[in-house]
Write a structure and sequence with these properties.
With 249 residues, the chain is mainly alpha-helical. The protein has 7 helices and 2 strands, in the order αβααααααβ.
Length: 249
């Protein structure tokens, strides 16, 4: 009886298919992405400044972003003093917060920053010429400007305030529009330089003209896209055990 049972257990072990062992590689949850094998995950706006980065890293990133924004706005104040024109307006300050604070968002890319302000300024001047400078005109014009930015794929929320400024204050377009374009471009250049000055910072801009989905404009620079590859889960093969014969009684 004992000999038969020993032979049966040996035969069962020999009949086990190879590769049925427990996977030894990292599980999807261990990669930190929750993605399947070979998945690619785009680095988000807070890449490198997440909860696991530590208080020190977040503090450095906050000081860096705030310093760049303050320096850019102070430069605009100096330019305005030299030209005797108000270059620093509230919409530009809000744009600086987006470019320096969340540089990976579509709202912060050059196409949206420069194009959004110029489009909204144009909507404001059209509304001013057609309906006057009443507050209700400014409100309607701002809503129209948001819709036009959406159609043009240049979303930039601070630019809607540019429409309100144009309608309510009636600035000279020959002076206001060039200064607005120059201020927006200066913010883009400041964000570009700042992203390369601090190691580990999110590279800005993510794209100049074309969005990541590849729907508009010229080809985006693939080198600017940060990807984190999840390691695939692999199963280690189980070595086949040789059958052993029971000793003769």
């Amino acid at each position: 009886m004992s000999v038969d049972m020993s032979r049966a257990s040996a035969d069962n072990r020999a009949a086990e298919p190879v590769g049925q062992g427990r996977p030894t590689g990292p599980r999807p949850a261990e990669t930190g992405t929750g993605a399947g094998p070979g998945a690619e995950v785009e680095a988000g706006p807070g890449a490198g400044v997440g909860p696991s980065a530590g208080i020190g890293s977040r503090s450095v990133a906050a000081l860096h972003s705030g310093g760049v924004a303050a320096a850019s706005l102070l430069l605009l104040v100096g330019i305005g003093a030299l030209l005797h024109e108000p270059v620093l307006i509230p919409p530009i300050a809000a744009s600086a917060a987006i470019v320096c604070g969340v540089p990976a968002l579509p709202l912060a890319q050059p196409r949206s920053v420069v194009g959004g302000h110029l489009l909204c300024a144009g909507v404001g001047y059209v509304a001013l010429a057609g309906a006057g400078g009443a507050p209700w005109v400014a409100a309607l014009a701002a809503g129209v400007a948001v819709g036009i930015m959406t159609l043009a794929r240049t979303p930039h929320s601070p630019a809607a305030a540019t429409t309100v400024v144009v309608v309510l204050q009636s600035p000279d377009p020959k002076v206001f529009v060039p200064l607005l374009a120059g201020a927006a471009l200066l913010l883009v250049l400041a964000g570009t330089a700042a992203s390369r000055a601090r190691p580990g910072a999110v590279r800005y801009p993510v794209y100049w003209w074309r969005d990541p989905a590849g729907r508009v404009g010229v080809r985006a620079r693939s080198s600017e896209r940060r990807r984190v590859r999840a390691r695939p889960v692999t199963a280690a093969p189980v070595p086949e055990r040789p059958a052993t014969r029971a000793p003769k009684s």
